[in-house]
Amino acid sequence: MTTFCSPVRMTMQQRQLTHMACSLLLDYPNTEFVETIAVTESQLPELPLPIATELTKFCTHVRDNGIRWLAEHYVTTFDQRRRCSLYLSYYSVGDTRQRGAAILAFQDAIHDLGFELARKELPDHVCVVLEASALADAAAHKVAVEMLAAHRDGLEVLRTALTGLESPYAHVITALCMSLPQIDAETIAYYHDLIHQGPPAELVGIGTPLPFPTTVS
Fold first, then answer.
1. Is 147 within 8 Å of 129 (Cβ atoms)?
2. Contact 137/47 with Cβ under 8 angstroms?
3. Can you give the residue range of the structural domain that contains 101?
4. pLDDT score, position 43
5. What is the DSSP string of 151-213?
6. pLDDT along the chain (217 residues), means of 10
């Protein structure tokens, strides 16, 4: 039986700090990632204990195994498994013709929050939305949290898959889910559909660049 993360009480500032930490830790681990770990660890005392504990477990795992191992694990996990996509819209539209519209909707939403996309990732990448949430003013932050909560089913599928793989990234997604509102019955139902069926897989045509995993489940 799946156990969903219960929300952790926190201030807006703590939630923004959590979202910035998750955004940084879910980014591809380049040569500067050691510094990212150090900066994250320095901020952990400011976070609620359950969230700090999850992020500490991730940071400890990285220090024990090294950045090179993490980079290889990142690719094999997020680029090659359909249930481990970091693109939020993937869980609702998958590799279908609706992909373009979904990406455009995220782009418009990020713009409405007052941000322009400066990073290479597509606007539905979880790191993009998390960064917007972390940097937004109070009103825009609330909207960003609602965007993340609207894709909670996909985040829970991701968390379940990462946990099954014993991936350290499960700790980061768990911390993220703890920062979101209580999951509702409709979202739980859709989560179970995704677990059993996987994301939609109607291919949009040979030669179309897919920003989502297209290999194993």
1. yes
2. no
3. 12-197
4. 96
5. THHHHHHHHHHHHHTT-THHHHHHHHHHTSPPPPHHHHHHHHHHHHH-S------TT----S-
6. 81 97 96 94 97 98 96 93 87 72 86 81 92 94 91 90 96 97 72 58 40 38
Bridge partners (DSSP) listed for residue 125: 87
Token digits of residue 175: 């911390």
- Which of 201, 155, 200, 213 has its CA nearest to residue 180? 155
Yes or no: say if 113 and 141 are a contact pair by the CB < 8 Å rule. no
Residue 1 inside a domain? The answer is no
Residue corresponding to tokens 């993220």 = 176
Report whether 54 contacts 168 (CB < 8 A). no
- At position 36, the amino acid (one-letter code) is T
- Read off φ and ψ for residue 30, nearest 5 degrees: -90, -165
CB 69 within 8 A of CB 168: no
Contact 106, 211 (CB under 8 A): no
How much is the pLDDT for 193? 64
Residues whose CB falls within 8 Å of the CB of residue 63, separated by 6 or more in sequence, listed in order: 37
Asked if residue 5 belongs to a domain, the reply is: no
d(CA 173, CA 17): 14
Residue 82: give its domain's CATH number.
Answer: 1.10.3480
In a domain, 217, yes or no: no
